[in-house]
Model the fold of this input.
Amino acid sequence: MGEYVKMMPGVGIKKEGGVAVSAGVVAFKESGGRVKVLVVRGIAGEHPDLGFYGLPKGLVHEGEADEEAAARDTREETGFRTRVGEYVGSTRYENEFGPKEARYFLAEFAGGKRGKPDGEFVWTGWVPVATALRGLTYKSDREILQKALDKLG
Done:
């Protein structure tokens, strides 16, 4: 399982071996005869003047399964509901809070509409897969997207 550390008032955050755990989705939907993937545009990162493009993810809270956290955080960040499925893979990195592991799951669009940016992101939406493969800022996100595509066949 893992330990839970209070990082926000009243919310325990999952840590395993001192590494904070987050969960996210590689969510797909068909639109206009094209398959699209859900992406977020953040306001920080390696390119503070441009922001970054990534896959939606967030910290796993106490009492949540990774899949539940992935669905919750995607809904909070984007306004879209997803059906979370099979595990795709994970990435590890460090940020200002220390080491993190992001676990990703396949997901499909299940409803909702784009929400208002929450301060962490300035835009969320569906883009063609080819655009995402070229445009995601981090190589690790592009690799996770490719793994998800490979699983889908």
In short: Helices lie at 66-78, 129-135, 139-152. The chain has one domain: 3-152. The beta strands are 3-8, 11-16, 19-31, 34-42, 52-54, 57-59, 80-95, 98-112, 121-128. The first helix runs from residue 66 to 78.
